[in-house]
Design goal:
This protein has about 375 residues and is an alpha+beta fold. It contains 10 helices and 13 strands. The longest helix has 27 residues.
Amino acid sequence: MIRVVAIQFNHAGKMYDFNAGDLELQAGDRVVVDTERGAGLGTVVAVPAEKDPALFPNPLAMVRRLLGPDDEKTLIHHAQCEQEAREFCLRRIKERAMDMKLVRVEYLFDGSKAIFYFTADGRVDFRELVKDLAHTFHTRIEMRQIGVRDEAKMVGGLGICGRELCCASFLRDFQPVSVKMAKEQNLALNPTKISGQCGRLLCCLDYEYEAYCELRKNFPKCGKRACTTSQCGVVEKMNLLTGELALRQGDGKLVNVHVGDLVDESRLETPFKEQPPVRERETQHPRERKSREQATQQQARKQRPPQPSPQQEPSAVVVAEPPTISQAVAEDGKQPAEGQKPKRKKRNRRHGHRKQQDKQPDSPSQE
């Protein structure tokens, strides 16, 4: 059996297992441990516990010692170097007009390497920048690109709830978050309401998602019909936390019932009869009624057949009637004899037809 202790290197960071050996450690102690990058400074999260070595495929690194007075001086010196390196790097980034944002500078405990954390939209060519940093500080330089979530975790701040950011206070790992979680919890899909300082969806949307899914299993869906022993209607809205439902009855009234009072409609001895809906004019506000009537009138006007304009009105067809006897006498000036019918005035036909003339014998052709 070996004594295993959990240690974190950053606040709310990942925990790693180390071999405590014979050291008596308590939660919150600062210790120096061996890492792949060299000596590192960490904080004890929990007291050591005895575990079977077979549970760990690789041998665990050892805890060297507790943090001493000399180590405190080393930390102060590293803090000054980090501040100088940050200011120098910011000046070089501005001079070279590089599309990157410096977030943090970290020196390893033994001073063998300086790590520069930055964010950028794409890939950045920082080879010349690394040469300037190495020539100035005479140590190994590592440029590490991180995401916006890691940036918020390092910088910290306050969320829209007024508390410290979850990722900077206690959240050790980032879980995937989707818009479906916000919909399941009946939250407004406003980007400013459901997004954090990093610009991504809030991590806290994942905290109660499973609880809401379990509660929703006992509720009918909105728009479905639900009944109790005394009332029946269509589900209008629901409150998953209090277990209350709002039912819209046939007369338009809203009734609040509890989800535990719902029964199967088929098991009711006397099924409910659908009540006729209330007249529209009675339920609507006068302003809504007026706007609805105006919309109905406009729709009726659109559905009317178009009336012909005065320019498109068909011209009246004038039918020529034959002249009467008195009109014929007035025009010719002669009185018709007895027994004779009055002659009608000869008129050419319309539509381009010519008057039929008497046929004349064909004249001999001239040769």
